[in-house]
Amino acid sequence: MTTKQPFNKVKTPRESRVHERYLRHSKKFPNVWCAGCGIGIVMGSIIRAIDDLQLDKNDIAMISGIGCTGRMPVYVDFNTMHTTHGRALAFATGLKMVRPEMKIIVVMGDGDALAIGGNHFIHAARRNIGLTTIVVNNTTYGMTGGQYSPTTPTDAIASTAPYGHIEQPFPIAELAAVSGAAFVARSTVYHVRELEKYIAQAIEKEGFTVVEAVSYCHTTLGRINRWGTAPDMMRRLKEQSVTRRQADGMSEEEKQGLIVRGVFVDRAVPEYTQLYDHIIERAEAEVA
Amino acid sequence: MNETNETTTDQTGQEKEPQAQRRLPRGQVTIFPNWCKGCGLCLEFCPVGVLEQGSDGRVIIAHPEKCTACRWCELHCPDFAIFVTDIEPSPEEEIA
Fold first, then answer.
1. In a domain, A85, yes or no
2. What's the confidence (pLDDT) of residue A11?
3. What is the pLDDT of residues A203-256, one digit of tens each?
4. Which of A103, A137, A189, B81 could bond A110 through an S-S bridge, CB–CB 3.0 to 4.6 Å?
5. Which ipTM value was assigned to this complex?
6. Distance of CA A34 to the CA centre of its chain
7. What is the pTM (predicted TM-score) of this model?
8. In a domain, A60, yes or no
9. Is A5 part of a structural domain of the chain?
């Protein structure tokens, strides 16, 4: 009886069919990523955050480098640019200087942001230019076959570290915080609502903002290390992550290997293009 | 919430159930099979077990009546292949 109830009123909420408004859904889908990859989840969070903020598609530019995450601008229906490896922030800086009113979202993978484009990353943060950077941290170079990246955890096995990885991983959020970014947050692809909230805050904020979205790669690193399928790795993210408040009560040993989620920095610092406008005014006044 | 759902479905023959039933939000699941890659995230994490794996590896809606419109699947689908729409209670349910 209860199952046969007529569905008399079906309302379409905001998030349903959001892909029809913000994705090139009729041309490019299904996407290129492996089944269960977290990058698609991050892309969903980005478009829902933009939908929340009610931004015009023409005022947004998405720029990416190379890698799995570098494929993201192919699917979104904004102004997009797919640039060379690690140089997404350099191209985005140029675009921001020419069109300072635009909301520019730079999506990069961990290798793209911190290895090949590491210098661009810290200097864009130091300069505090108004870009929203979303670093999808899957802890490996997935597209090229699971080589270790700057964020691969110590002791993990990678295709270029068959006896175990001996290096320390880069803490992306902490690095961006000490480099001078205006807003830094970290969340995981399991905590989608939180990720969406942080991305919306980052897009709204003036200055250089970084959101680290911790993801996973079950196809390369996960398979070599026998970490299981996509749902298994999703469960690992759920179990291994703590909020900043929970982490404050923990000792250093307890925090080892855990992902700390939360907002790390939210401060008011002058934005670069605005300072640049002041310099132009001052120079013109001196000449006149 | 899971437990109350179980008990109500057990006693669907009896008539005193709709009161407890109508307060649960309900959803209608839609799947785009062309986009689904069968990763299994939605069916592994669905809290009420709406979904099952089909013979081709893709996900199928096995128990549509169980959906409580929590949207876990919709928010976490990397391929935008699953959507949930809210169902408002029908007039008979409101009266009951």
1. yes
2. 42
3. 999 999 999 999 999 999 999 999 999 999 999 999 999 999 999 988 888 888
4. A137
5. 0.85
6. 18
7. 0.87
8. yes
9. no
Between chains, do A6 and B90 touch, taking CB under 8 Å as contact? yes
- By CA distance, what is A14's nearest residue in B? B85
Domain of residue A158, residue span:
33-243+258-287
Q: Report how far residue B8's alpha carbon sits from residue B24's, in angstroms, rounded to the nearest whole number.
A: 11
Would you place residue B24 in the very low, low, confident or very high pLDDT band (cuts 50, 70, 90)? confident
Q: What is the pLDDT of residues A161-217, one digit of tens each?
A: 999 999 999 999 999 999 999 999 999 999 999 999 999 999 999 999 999 999 999
Contact call for A39 and B76, based on CB within 8 A: no
Tell me the CATH number at A97: 3.40.50.970
Tokens of A50: 């933009």
How many domains in chain A? Answer: 1
List chain B domain ranges: 25-95
Does the beta-carbon distance from A234 to B8 stay under 8 Å? no
Tell me which residue in A3, A6, A35 faces B39 most closely, judged by beta carbons: A35
CATH topology of domain B25-95: Alpha-Beta Plaits (3.30.70)
Judged by CB atoms closer than 8 Å, whether chains meet at A10 and B87 is answered as: yes
- Main-chain phi, psi angles of A46, to 5 degrees: -65, -45
Are A101 and A57 a contacting pair, CB within 8 Å? Answer: no
Residue A130 included in any domain: yes
